[in-house]
Structure formats: C-alpha cells, structure tokens
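To the team - FE2/S2 (inorganic) cluster complex, inputs and output below.
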Amino acid sequence: MATLTVNGTDVTVRDGATILDAARQIGIDVPTLCWYPTLPIVGNCRVCLVSVEGSAKLLPACATTAADGMKVTTESYAAVENRRGVLGMLLERYPAERIDERGAQNEFERMVKRYGVSVENRSGLPLRAGDDRAGDPMIQHDMSTCILCTRCVRACADIQVVGVLDVAYRGDHAEIIVGADGNPEHAGCTWCGECVRVCPTGAIHDVLPLAKFARDAMQKPATSVRSVCPYCGVGCQLDLEVRGTDVVRVNSPWIEEATPNMGSTCVKGRFGTDFVLHRDRLTTPLIRKGWVKRDGRWRYEGDPADVKRWGRRGGPWRDIEGESNTQKSRPRINPLRRLPTVGGPLGDPRDRVATPADWYEPFREGTWEEAMEIVAQELTRLRDSHGSDSLAVFCSAKCSNEENYVLQRLFRAGIGTNNVDHCTRLCHSSSVSAMQRAMNTSAASGSMREVECESDVIFLLGANTTESHPVFGAALKRAQRRGAKLIVADPRRIELAQRADIHLQMLPGTDVALLNAMLHHVIHLGLHDQAFIRERTHGFDEVARAVEPYTPERAETISGIPAHLIRRAAELYARGPRSSTLWAMGLTQHRTGTDIVASLLNLILATGMIGRWGAAMLPIRGQNNVQGASDVGAIPMVYTDYQPVTDPSIRHRFAQAWGVPDERLSLTPGLKVTQIVTKGSPVRGMYIMGENPIISDPDVAHAEEWFLGLEFLAVHDLFLTETARYADVVLPGASFAEKDGTYVNTERRVQLARKAIPAPGAARGDLEILLELSNRIGLPTPFSTAADVMEEIASVTPSWRGITHARLQETGGLQYPVEHATHPGTAFLFADRFPTADGKATLVPVEFLPPAELPDEEFPFWMNTGRQLYHWHTGTMTRRSQGLDSREPVPTVELSPADAAEMGVRDGDAVRITSRRNSIEIAVRLSPRVARHQVFVPMHYREAAANLLTNPALDPYAHIPEFKVCAVRIEPVAPGRHRALSVERIEPLVPAD
Amino acid sequence: MGFPHKSHPRETPVLSTHFGDSEARSLSGWRARGGYRALEQALGMTPAEIVNVVKDSGLRGRGGAGFPTGLKWSFMKPGDGKPHYLCCNADESEPGTFKDREIMRWTPHALIEGCAIASHAIGAETCYIYIRGEFTEPLQTVGAALDEAYRDGILGKSAMGTGKRIDIYIHKGAGAYICGEETALMNSIEGRRGNPRIKPPFPAVAGLFGQPTTINNVETLAAVPPILTNGAEWYKAMSLSNPKSTGTKLFSVCGNIARPGNYEVTMGFPFREFLHDICGGARPGHTLKAVIPGGSSVPIQTMQEADATLMDYEGFVANGSMLGSGGVIVFDDSVCMVRMIGRLARFYAHESCAQCTQCREGTAWVTKILERMENGGGTTRDLDTLLELSENMTGKTICVLSDSCAAPVVSGIQKFRHEFEAHINGKRCPMRSAAAA
Ligand SMILES: Cc1cc2nc3c(=O)[nH]c(=O)nc-3n(C[C@H](O)[C@H](O)[C@H](O)COP(=O)(O)O)c2cc1C
Ligand code: SF4
Ligand code: SF4
Ligand code: FES
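Output:
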C-alpha cells in the first residue's frame, strides 16, 4: 500500500501499482498510447510522462511504481510540453490533414485535438510504412497511420500467444511487419483481430465493413449493442456496431470489463457474423407447393408431375450423397429475394451464396398466417390422430434459453410428449450421463478464469481448443506461459499438443485404457488423495480393483502411448497441487463415450482434483447455448434444472406452472435425437428449430431417407438449410443480433444478448413465432418478452432462482447456481459436498472396449472428424461469412505426408474416401498433425459431408454416436487436382515444430 | 611499448604497457609478464574483500557513465539464491572510441583475468563478453585466449583449481550501436531485439535472464588486475587533479590531429598539453577549432574550453562537456560544423532502437533539417526547431541515445551559431564554396 498525491488529491493504491493506476483510480485521465491494460509495459511512447516532486526528470506514469508520499502533477507545464512534443513528432509522419477533414476519428487523433497540436513546419519525412496485408479478406493495414506504439505486437504475442507481428529495422526505418516475409499465413496468424482491437489509430483495421457497405452507411451515427457471440461455448461478449439497420462491425468489449473473453474474440466472433446480412436469409415463410386450403383445412395436393419427379418432399436438388459429388455452387441470384448488389473492392460479399437457386423451386412464398395455420393444424392433427409421441421436436443449441424453454414447454404441455431433444445428444450427452451418475451434475464445476490464472496442471483431452474454442485456447497458452504444466491427450498433434509438456498421442478411442492406466499408476505410487476418497466418495475400492490389470505397459499396447509417458502424465497430474481437467468431443463422441468420461471422472475423484479453486472439472461446451438449452429442459428425460420427467411430484409442479392438468404431461422419458431419426421410430411429424441434422447426424444418407418418410416437417431457421429442403413449411427466424435472449456458456454463465437490428423482411423473432404457435395449439402463454419468459424459468428452476434480465443487464453474466435475487453467482462448485443424496460422489469401474469399427485390410485408415478454426458445424453460418469462407473454402482431409507419399498424392489432389456406408471426394491437405494411417475430415462441408461416412454406433447410456472413429479407404481420384482448386488455394497448416 | 606509436614519455602506461607486444597475447607470454597472479590472489580473497579494494581504488566505469565500479559490484547481494551474471561490454561502437579494441587485440588475458576476478567478486559463475561483431580480430584474439585459459584450468568448473566455477562466453554482436547500452545488450544476449529496457528494475536487481547482473566496460575490467596486484593506494595515488577521479585512462584520439591513436594518461592530465604535446597538435597549416572529448555522445568543446580542461570526470564537465568513453575527436578549421553535426545526427537516427517517440522521430527530424541546412535550405526558424526538438529529446527517453544525439546539436548551435547562420544566410555551405572557389 502506498499513499501518494496526484494533482493535489490523495490516493492509496495497492503495492506495485503505478502512478497511472493511481491516477486512474481517482478518475484522472493521463494520456497513454503504448500502455494498454494487461499488456506488458514497455513505456515507449513517452506521452504519459508526468512531473514528480523531487525528480529532475519527468517520469513515465505507466511504468513508474507509485511510492509513498509521491507528489505527482500530471499536467504540469513540463509534462504538457513534452506531450505536445511527442504528439507533434508522431503527427509529423501521419496523414494529419485528415484530422481537419473528418474530425478526430481515433484514440490518437482525439489526443492530438485534446492537446491542440497541429502540423506546422513539416520536416519532409515520408509517412510511415509497414507490411500491408494487401488483399486480405478480414484484416488490412494502412501503416501510414501507424505510430509504432507496438500494442499490436504485444497483443498478438502476449494475449493471443501467437506472435505474428513485430517491429523490424531501427531508427526512422522501424516498421511493423507481418511475419518474416509479410505472409500472415506463414507466421501462424489466426485472424483473431486482437491487433485490430488494440490499435489506437486504425492503422490495423478490419476490412469487411468497408467493403460491404456503401460509404453513406458508414457515415450514419453508430450505436453499440452488447451481444453474445453465436458460435462456441466460451460465450464471448461482443459489441455490435449498428448503423441504420445493419451491424457494420463487431467490436469486442473493453478489456477490463468482466466478460468471459476479457475483450478478446476469435476470428469467428469478430469477422464471422456477416452471415446475418447474407442475401440467403429467409425473409418470408416458405410453403411447399401443393399445400392448399379447402373448407378451412389445409391439405397437401402436390402437382402429380412434381411429386412424380421429386417425391412427396423432394426437390430438384441432389441429396447429400449427391451433393458430395458437386462443387459448392455460387449463383448470383436468390430467386425469392432479388436484392441490388453493393459494389466494393472485394465484390459483393454476399455473392458467396451457399443456397443453390434450385433449392427454392419446390416452395412458394407464404404469409405468416398461412404458415402458422398449417403448422398448428398438422401438429394438432398428428397429436390427435396418432398420439402425442408421434411428434418430436429438435430444440436448438444456438437459440436462447427463453426460446428453448418455450419450445419444450409447447411440446410437453401443448402436445404432451417428452420427445424433445437437441444436438447436445451429439456432443456432451455422454459427459452428462457420466457426470450425472458420478455426482449428479451436468455442467462444469469451475471457471475458465481459474484455469487460466490458478491451475498448476492442465489436463486437456480430446479438445482442439485453439481451433474450436480459440479464446479459451489462448487463455490456456497464457496459463502455460505463467508456468502451468500442460498435458494433452489427443490422437492428433494439434497446436496445444505441440506446445504441451506431455502429449499423449493415442490411437482413437483408446482413452479408457489410458485413463485406467493413469489411475493404476497413481494408486501404485500412493498419489491418490485418501482423505478425499474417504470423506467424499463411494466405490473407490471397486475401481482400484478394476484398474489393477491396466498397467501402463498394457495401456501402451492398446493405445500406442509409451508407458513412461503415461506414468509421467499420471504423476504430474496427481501431484498438482491444483490440476484442472478439460475435455471435449474427442472423449464423448464414442460408442463408449460414457465409459470414457467415467474413467476420467474416476481419476479426478481419486486424486481429489475437484471442488477447489484451481482444480476445475470443465467439459468444454461446443455451442453458444448447448449448456443452456439442456438446463432449460430441451432434453427428453428432464424438465429444467435436470428434474426428471418421471417424478409425479415434479410433474405436478410443472403442470401447475404451465396451467395444464397433470395428465397432460407425460411421465415417460422421450426419445433422443438418435432414436428419433432412425428406422422404426414412431415419429411422424417434426418441428426443427435451428438445427441441421441432414449434415450433423451420423450416416446421413440413412437419416435423409428417414426424413423423406415423415408426414409433416416444419423447419424454423435463418436459411433454407439442407434439412429445410425437405420441409413442408419453413419459418424464417431471427439471428442472434435480431432478438433479446440469454445464453449459457461453458462455465455456467448466463449472459444476455440484446436485440441490435430488426430481422430482415418478414422474418420474425423466434420467441414471437413460438409464442404464437403455442397459443394456436391451445397452450396459452402469458409472456410477451424474453424477460417475462425468464421470470417463469427462474420460478421453476431452483438454481436459476435469482436470475432476471434486469440483473443480467447490469452484471454482464451470472454463473448459476444463483440462489436468490442478490446472490452473486457461483464461480466453482463442490467445495464441500456433491449434489447427491449423501453429498458423496461415486466412482464407477469401467473396462476398455475398442471402437465399434476398426481398420482392416479393406478399410485400412482410421477416420476422425471434427471442427476447423474457420468453420462451424454444418457451415450454415460460416460458409456464408465472406471472411471465414475465403480462409477455408474447400473441404480438405488431413493426411500424413508419409501416407500421401505412399499413395502418390500431393497437397491439393482429390481423393475418394470410402467407408462401409458411403463415400466422398475431398482435397488432400498434407498435415504433420495426423498420425500415420489416420485421417481427419472436418464436419462442415455439405459437398463432402463427413457424416456420410461416420458410423452410427451408439453409446448405450447417452445414445451419442461414434463420430470420432470409423474405418475408411482412401484412393486417389483422376485427374489429380481437386476441382475446386482451380479457383481456390489450399493453405498449408502450420507445420509441426 | 605502445601502438601504433611508441609510448610518449608523458603517458602513464598501465593498461597499454603491452600494446604492440604480440607475445603478451599468449598465455605463456602473459604469465611471463606477471599475468594471472592477481586472479590467483583474488581467488584467495572473499568477494567482499575484493569489492572493498576496488571501492578504495576509486575506479570508475570507463564505458561512459563513470559510475564507481566497487559500488556497482556491492549491489550484488551475496547468498540471495539466484544465479548472478557478469557482462563485459565490449561492443565499443561509439564513434571516435577504439580503446577496448586495442585492449582485446593485445592483452586479451588482461580482460579475461579482470572478468574472472569480477565474477568472483560479485558471486557470478557465468560471464558473457559481448564483443562488437565488426571486431573480427579482437574476437579472434579473445577467443584464442579463452581457449588457452580453459585448457590451462584457469577457467571452468574449478577455476585455478579452487573449486570455484567461472565460465566465460563470448557473445558476438550483430552491428547495432544500441546493443552497447547495458540493458539492450542483455536483451541481445537473450536472443531478443536489442531494445533498452525501462529502468527500474536495474540490472543488479533483474538483469540478464531476469537475474542480478553487473555490467562493466572492457577498460574497467582490465584495470582490476593491476589494482589487485599493486593495491588500492597505488591506483588512488594516480591522480593529478581531484580524488574523485583516480588511475589512468585510455583516450582514443582521432580526427584532424597530427598523431591519432590511443594514449594512456593519469587522470587530471591537462588536455591542452595532451593534445599538443602527446598527440602532436594540429596538422601543419591548420588550426584546431573544436573537440568532442568523450565519444560522439558528449557536447562539443571549443578550443578555449578544451585548453582549460583537466582530463578527468569533473574536469570535462566543468568545461562544457563530459569524459564519456574517452574518444577524443578533433576538428580543425577545415571542418564544417553543420555538416559534421549532421553526420553525427544521421548516425543516431540510424542507430536508434526506435522505441521512444522522441528518439525515433527526433533523431530523424534533426538529421533531415541539418542535411537540408548544409545544402543551403535552412531557415532561422529551423534553428529554433532544432533546439526545441533537442529539448524534447533530452531526459525523456528510456535510454540516453536520444540525449546523445541532442548533445552535439545543442552545443554546436550554442558554440558555433555563426556557422549555422552563415549557411542560412548564404544559402549554401561557406566552406564548400571556398573549396570550390
Ligand atoms: C546508446 C548507448 C551505447 C553504449 N555503448 C557502450 C559501449 O559500446 N561500450 C560500453 O562499454 N558502454 C556503452 N554504453 C554504456 C553502458 O550502458 C554502460 O553504462 C557501461 O557498459 C557500464 O560499464 P562501466 O560501468 O564499466 O562503464 C552505452 C550506453 C548507451 C546509452
Ligand atoms: S499498427 Fe497500430 S497498434 Fe501497431 S504499432 Fe502501429 S499504431 Fe500501434
Ligand atoms: S532513447 Fe532511443 S535508443 Fe534509447 S530506448 Fe529510446 S528509442 Fe531506443
Ligand atoms: S503510455 Fe507510458 S510511455 Fe507510453
């Protein structure tokens, strides 16, 4: 603690605080250019120098530690003269004329104005230069306005831990460079735009808004609306810059705000939300041609010629199997929505159209009245004629809590079925079933910040965090730099595996062997936490017996990981003292997913690495609201807060809350995604909100067939997706920017996104659509806004009791449990008990079982699937984002160079991948990240849908399919180059090491 | 001896005794001349004892700032559990300075011995000698001497068999003047860009690799062995002026002078006699006009000032300049001061590490003006701008390179304003036109 005087005011600061901290603490604004919160202090701009009594020299406020009794004057004559001098010198090589023309536009120019500095007496030095990233689709440089504060350099190196930018040369030649050769690709750039955020002059700027909007749009006054990123489960908050009715730019919140992202975003958050403005957006309901209204009822009387040509719910399109033999099409016109195009240096960004023109052919535009009438009529008809369970609904991990809640409420209370599920089934359902069994919980125990700042050891399994959750990935890299040890278990040598202290590179699907062996070794050395085991768990002894045969040597034969590495990892993890455990799809998407997670939980519990700050259990959630959708009951077995549907007393409470008789609510758990979409399922009609099972389900050729057999299908989405093609009615919904709603991130943080712009055309807010539908099928809804819905959610969800929109407006997020209206939320759980009946967790013995399909002579490769940095799930959004799609325009398979050499294929050649189910054609990307005889196929491309190949083998508990392992064959395709590559480039992956 | 001339009788050779004597380069030759006795003696002393001897001797840093060496060493806290480092600054890139080069060329073992003693004194097991990359011959001689010293067991795991570890490594610079600045030098050794660091923390707290570090100039370290052998009193007694400046100092003399070269004199030697007797005075037919006495970074002296100066730390300050590194640059009446100062400014503009705004922009701007002025394009207002810029460049930056650029500019304008005005008024360089006429 030091007490000093700044401009006559006394202020007491913590030890180590700088003069600048002291001034900021009492609201005194000392101008700074090179200083930026959290970045290393370099003190190079010299604009913050202040007078300190007793010091002959001016001292840098940003770099001088505040000392007791200091007397600081921030605007002394000498300080101001210096400041004017510095600004004058910077202005000297800056295009200063523009300040007079357009007024001060940026941080630096505002400072120049504040100190009344102008350019007289030019020195004749040239404007500054630097690398320019010419033609870059997202980030460009205008280095004439660079003032060499080096914020960008440090942001890249210290926040993102990438290190693309640097200062090159000395003296007046000094300039910012992009990698050694000016190519961001070669330097490992991830286009996160951290540099854009920190640059005080706009020398580094985002390019999209300028290209996309005519000048006058950019001239309209801007407002800023706080939202939540629509992509992954990190839940980054975003500030949408709105001009007129367009989101013209995405900014990240100020770095010092308590957001999960602390001001960072990844490329998707900052540059990937232009899909909102894409011309493919549905602006009016679409009704399948042939639906006619007679005598007050709608019936399907399709033109026999059409039906003959296409089938009842077909169209002129190829099915996904056929798509996989086409190139992505890019028609210039959306036949239902002819919009003028805007010119720009990159052409009209909306031209990268992903919906082929002929997909619209089987539909006509309809009114909302017509569309809603048909949907309501068909849902009630099927309910009444075939029973409630003939209907099912897919809620959406991309929609808000309020929408998911209303939709599951509609199906449970309005239709009377528990056939409610969403894509959590395909991601963390096995984690949930294992966590439920072990400790009756369904979410992370800790927080991302604690992993970043506190954990001593981070054990990351089956998660490519730097690509799938990039902002958290950067936090892990920062944690490692701080000194945390990183253990990565992954069949691929992904970026974090390359950086890791220990990389456990296993054969796909052999996790149980690895984890059992780690526990074996821990017990062998006596490193298990006996007090924790005794006081807080059951079942250790059985598990200890079960892992006894799993020696590291045995695990080595199964998993291919050297036994000594398994031992080292086990010791490092168990010694902690605070080890955090993070995992994602690599563990869960197996037919043994629940077992795999259970074996991991055994390790966590046996070493007591849970329930302490710094020892977090963190399943990393994939989607912006996959946690929330599950929390509010969009899964078949439970109501909100995981309250079982089978319990009559719970049913009674919900029936009361929803104003229906108890019997209306079914006591039978509903069907899961993978049980609905399968031969012999009883479901005849479906409502799908914001999901695209035709690309995301395993073995999709069969799924597609199943959809063709439906009696009625309503799809509610932003675009005419692959799934929507088969619908009877397509309802145009609103994107995240066009509605209010809350989302839950991977650390149980409920956050509020606010409406920034109106939905396009006649598209409507999703909540509005669902409320109207609910009313139409006879379940009245007392709500009119999302805030109203949240009130009801809070009343039926014990752990959300204290959450209201009003609180979320202020706090920028609450981590549940939030027990009452003033409860601050809970950063970590299980400090002294688990939420089980006796407060103890249970260890469950598990045995290793190999994946359902192993390579053999006919199909000699292991195929793994997953995400890439620039794309997202089925590509519905990202492939309509100009910047993202231009980075990764072509479906590629990662193939090890040695295998490629054996096959005689080169980078960019086309190959055919065939599994027992189907085959796709795809371009080769040589990648040192994959092991020999393993390939990685991203899931995002409809023209090479990975899920045509995947194996629909299911986990017996969670019914999650084995997306991560199937056996395939790979053959070169004549004539060599992949056809899409005549126009596009394949960028190399950053080579290993 | 002496190099390239025989020692002048008025010199006091201590460090330069063996300049020109190629046998002193080898270990056996050096031993024959009394070498490594000081180290042997030092290894038998406690670090604190050595530090006290050096303190008592009054030795001050010869790299430019003149900080008392013993005091600097005493900042290294023994037993703090951290590795300590010694850096020897052999980056000698200051225009006009070439004394360290000769020490390394002729008496590499003197430097190694000094480094070893200093390492012991500050509790360091590792010393880096950072040698300017262009110094190909010194790199070679010091390298060869190190090899010999290792082979002989003087260095290594057990220095001279005492069980104390002393390792010395050579780090070759890559041509940046700024890497002679102590913290830039440390960055450079660590493999980073050679940017000076903000101070505090000072090197004795967090220097090389973040550990306590002492950094000394070559001449400073080479002076340590004779101090140990002959005693602090002997060294302290070598002073002709005041007790704050003791011992001998090597001066590198260059420019318009009859006998350029390195000369070693006792502190406090009269500068006038140094220039005229020892260095031979002006070239025939010329008169001396000005001198920069301490390497290009110090203010210019007029001959009046120079004539009144006693050559020690205080003496130069009293007469409008500084001792600096001891690089004496002499100018006679054939030199255009505007052109000369412009050249210096260009050097600094080129060498600025470009962190600080004032330095990066100021040095370039000053250069631009001076070069324009030299070519006849200057205005009176430019003189004000130069002084304003210099004011902004002084005392406000991370290191003093910026100040170094301002020093000759300000002193030049103050002391030779008429030459600047002649350029402005005549719209050309008067000296060049004289030559052309
Ligand atoms: C720009 C700049 C360049 C420097 N170059 C040198 C150099 O080449 N050699 C040197 O010994 N000291 C140089 N110094 C001084 C060092 O920073 C440091 O003061 C010196 O090495 C300390 O050693 P000493 O105490 O023995 O003099 C330079 C300082 C600055 C600011
Ligand atoms: S580009 Fe921007 S952030 Fe980077 S050094 Fe220049 S002004 Fe600073
Ligand atoms: S004064 Fe010049 S050389 Fe020194 S740190 Fe600043 S910019 Fe670099
Ligand atoms: S803000 Fe302090 S020196 Fe730049």
